[in-house]
Specification:
The complex is a heterodimer. Chain A is α+β, with helices and mostly antiparallel strands. Chain A has ten helices and eight strands. In chain A, strand 2 and strand 3 form a beta hairpin. In chain A, helix 2 packs across helix 3. Chain B has one domain. Chain B is built from nine helices and no strands. Classes of the chains: A alpha+beta, B mainly alpha. At the A-B interface, helix 1 of A face helix 3 and helix 4 of B.
Amino acid sequence: MGYYAIIVFGGLGLLFAVGLAIAGRLLRTAEDGRKSDVLRSLPGVNCGACGFAGCEGFAGGLISGKAGIEKCASLTEESLKDIERMLGLTPGEIVRKKAVVYCSGGKNCSGRYGYIGVETCRASGQIFGGHKKCDYACLSFGDCSRVCPFGAITYKKGEVPVVNRELCTGCGICVDVCPKKIISLVEEKYPVHIRCSSKDNGNYVRQVCKTGCIACGVCVKVCPKKAITLKDNLAVIDYGKCNACGLCVERCPANTIERALPK
Amino acid sequence: MIDNSMTPGMIFLSASLINNIILMQFLGLCSFFGVSTNIKNSASMGLAVTFVAVMAGVVSWAVYHLVLVPFQITFLRTAVFVLTIASLVQLEEMFIKKYVPPLYSAMGIYLPLITTNCAILAVAFLNIDYSLSLLNTVVHSFAVAFGYVIAIVLFAGLREHLVLAPVPKSLRGYPLAFFLASLMSLAFMGFKGLFGL
């Protein structure tokens, strides 16, 4: 009886296999061979920055013309060229963006209350807008760091996370997850950033934070390109006009303005 | 309990409503929650499940009665049924890919996942456990799948409305879907005892 079991089970398996092989022949579909090639050239991290469900969906979108290649945030130069060749596109430039955290507070920013609880920015942010006195402050629990699929954000507890501009691809997941919404994507070529988001008046900012923008206007005066303006108690930089001379970085009394390193 | 003494109509009623596979027997829940975000996708999933369930019911019935019983190896039925269903789903996938490509892309990952849909395996087992005739097997398999379609389409309709409702943040998405499913299950318990079934 034991033999029967093996033979019959094996036989059934063989029968189905043969049946499927024949059916596979009969029902074969002509698949667009480019899809797998394109998919191989894509980063394969499924970050979702393109708006499709993963890289496979994006590859399908590229081939059917529903998506533009520039939607992919984390494409390398070589893969870009490969894909453009495969799809017969005219070579173009990708505007690369990097995440910038518009807060330089961290330990320089004083606390509103002692927070004991789940150590995520989201949890803290739900209690009176977070444990910092400044309503625009980074809560420094590193939600952005944990969510980054490229490991580009590092943080130490209590300090503002640091974005590694080599690894950051500009997918924007951290922008979405930050409960204080103080992360933005900025084109890679602009290195000087005013790292404060506070719209509180200068007097209050000076009380709660050592590195917050107090809207003193020194940078506005010093900028040779007139790229900086004061708006809602905050110095705002017009990236299009900035020539990265760095005068504002040197003169800012609160050291709010920083030049992204190393470039 | 369903058996051969019941008319096909009674079997249908019992299997689709009174012993609804999802809401009363709690089988096939993964696809029930996974593919129920809009009515269109859930209906196509229901279609695929119906197709596979009837085919799997008939083929596994035939395999059981024509192969396993004569060779006295009915103890192998779990393995054999899994094998049968897996092959059938492969076949269906090829078929749909060839003839209904939009349906294929709409169902995506859930089509191959029918392989492991416990509702399908349950249909195959129940047909044997109730020792149904071939005709009743077809009716019963279809009825179970129809019950699946009823449940998932109703559920998807409700979930479509929930997207717009001002739901507390902590309940948004799956948590509320679980509550909803349990309430639907309670409602379906009202069918219990209908016509003495």
